[in-house]
Structure formats: C-alpha cells, structure tokens
C-alpha cells in the first residue's frame, strides 16, 4: 500500500465517523455546495502527480487536519469539505516543509478552484490551525507509526518515494468542480 492509499484510508475513516450526521455543524469556506465528482483517492493521486511534494507533506497534512478538528469541535469533516481541506492542507504543508513550492495560482489550478478562493482557504486554514505548523519529531513519528501499523506500510515504503521525489516542473492540468 502506498502512502497516498494509506492517507486516503485515513481520510475515508474521518468521513465514516461523521457520516451519521452529514450536515455541517458550522459554516466555512471549505464547504462546497455539492459533493465533487472525484473520489478522495483520485484527488490525492492528482495532487501527488502535479504538486510533486514529498510523502512527508501528506503526513503533515493529516496532522494539520487533526489539529483543526481538535481545536474546532464544531467543524465537521464531510464529503462537502474534504477535497478543499485536503488541497489546502497539502499546499500549506508543502509551503512549510519543502524547499521548492509553487504559487497559489498553480495549486488552485491543480485543485480545480479559482486562485482567489485558494487564497481565502489558505487564510482560513492558517487561522483555524492558529498558525501552528511546526510538528515535533515525536508527533510526526507517531502518525508515521500509525500509518505503518494500521495500513501495512513498511518504513521503506514511507521513505522510498521521498528519496525518489524530484522537484522538477510539471505539466499543468486542470481539475474542475472541487
């Protein structure tokens, strides 16, 4: 199982836990009017293909999402917000942890939203997480261990893609309705 598949499983677990009450408890920029026509797995694969960020960024993205849900108990992760939340979380983690990252206009294009919306999502995300982007080694290792133990990843799989990851330019693609 790849890191993207493990992260997908983890995010789908979030959705299953909130499926009983699928209506949002609070309003947020992250909530779309309708459920996007792309699966979480396909969306994460798209982000991986075009964002070219390390595997660690996806683990950081999970940590950031957990921080938001623990700080804002009324924020419900559901099918109306998960795609925007993933996009923003991965983008913020790439900007924080990577040596090379792209402009918001590029991330917006990859994610299928307007740049102005990407900017607003980033701002709201950072406010919700209270700008706490640093992750200790212990916390990061705890999440890595969870992915390894629950989803059958080996430590080699967790780091192999990171070593192979190249930060070259990518062909731009466009998603829609996310």
UniProtKB/TrEMBL annotation:
GO biological process: cell division
Keyword Ubl conjugation among record annotations: no
Keyword terms, alphabetized: Cyclin
Pfam families: Cyclin
GO molecular function annotation: protein kinase binding
Database matches in Gene3D superfamilies: Cyclin-like (1.10.472.10)
Family: Belongs to the cyclin family.
Designated name of the protein: Cyclin
Organism listed in the record: Blepharisma stoltei
């Amino acid at each position: 199982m790849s890191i993207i598949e493990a992260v997908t499983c983890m995010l789908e677990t979030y959705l299953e836990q909130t499926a009983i009450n699928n209506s949002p408890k609070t309003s947020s920029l992250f909530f779309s009017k309708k459920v996007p026509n792309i699966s979480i797995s396909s969306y994460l694969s798209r982000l991986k293909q075009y964002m070219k960020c390390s595997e660690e960024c996806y683990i950081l993205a999970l940590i950031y999402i957990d921080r938001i849900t623990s700080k804002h108990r009324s924020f419900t992760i559901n099918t109306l917000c998960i795609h925007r939340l993933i996009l923003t979380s991965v983008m913020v983690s790439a900007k924080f942890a990577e040596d090379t990252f792209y402009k918001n206009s590029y991330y917006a294009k990859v994610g299928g939203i307007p740049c102005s919306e990407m900017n607003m999502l980033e701002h709201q995300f950072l406010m919700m997480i209270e700008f706490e982007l640093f992750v200790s080694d212990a916390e990061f290792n705890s999440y890595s261990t969870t992915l390894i133990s629950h989803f059958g990843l080996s430590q080699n799989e967790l780091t192999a893609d990171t070593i192979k990851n190249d930060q070259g330019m990518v062909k731009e693609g466009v998603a829609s309705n996310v």
